[in-house]
Amino acid sequence: MSQNTIHAYAAMQAGEKLVPYQFDAGELLAHQVEVKVEYCGLCHSDISVIENDWNNTIYPVVAGHEVIGIITQLGTEAKGLQVGQRVGIGWTAESCQHCNLCINGQYNLCKDQQATIVNHAGGFSEKVRAAWQWVIPLPEQVDPETAGPLLCGGITVFNPILNHKIQAVHHVGVIGIGGLGHMAIKLLKAWGCEITAFTSNLAKTDELKAMGADHVADSRDPAALKPLNGKFDLLLCTVNVSLNWKAYLNTLAPEGTLHMVGLVLEPMAIPAGSLIGGAKTVTGSPIGSPADLRKLLQFAARKHIAPQIELYPMSKINEAIERLHSGQARYRIVLKADFDRND
């Protein structure tokens, strides 16, 4: 067996359970880093790739893009990292490094970026490889068991906080309190903001307030929205379903923003008048740059921020996927690598 043989769990076809799989990763490229996986978060995007929801999956596919692990190899061009160092790898494994966006530090917007799990072997495996710029050092104060989801869901909600220059004086609404939304509440609480959590399940109220929400409102009740008109500097929407967007736009303060990180599957009905009168905007964003990922982990270390997780051994990956499908996970699932177990 080649020293570059990697054991993993792969989907061989859409709709099938993941099975043990091994592949030869070939020689490590000069700009790459190889990381032995300790933990890997399980994200809805992994399921979308496994099930070919986006029509771009090539089977067999090894998903997993919230990786925490230890560097085992460094390419000759890798910089600033060391073998034995604990690091993370998120949604992106490569970017071109030479386009105008990359030169400007906006690597996450590079049109030639390579996702960690699209035509690339991800973290449901013993080892993962990525370009050194996308291999993010993990501060010692951050628990490796819970850190993985910060590298995808966490940066997805942190990026708008940075880009919209949110400050402690701002009032932010978070629409949808699941894997993304609960991390948004924790980050915004540490940021010092006033937070309103919008959820379709008011039974979560006490739990959401314990996380840091100042107020909780029914996300589907127009009567709950009306008293909030003109209140929010930022509405951070994490859901993938259509809502009464006009009613939500009415809750924005002048120059407020409705920011989308949830992939709503239907066209959004946005009346122009709802934007013009208060100079309001609707925006969206993907993950963040390597620099923003470093900022997030440093902030999480300083403020002791950790996602709420359920931990499964990697060998129980199909059970973990069923748990995610059930909608009952609170709030992210993390897989602990156990390829060295003796069956």
TrEMBL record:
InterPro entries: ADH-like_C, ADH-like_N, ADH_Zn_CS, CAD-like, D-isomer_DH_CS1, ER, GroES-like_sf, NAD(P)-bd_dom_sf. Keywords: Metal-binding, NADP, Oxidoreductase, Zinc. PROSITE patterns: ADH_ZINC, D_2_HYDROXYACID_DH_1. It comes from Acinetobacter calcoaceticus. Its cofactor is Zn(2+). This is alcohol dehydrogenase (NADP(+)). Pfam families: ADH_N (PF08240), ADH_zinc_N (PF00107). Its EC number is 1.1.1.2. Belongs to the zinc-containing alcohol dehydrogenase family. Residues 15-335 form the Enoyl reductase (ER) domain.
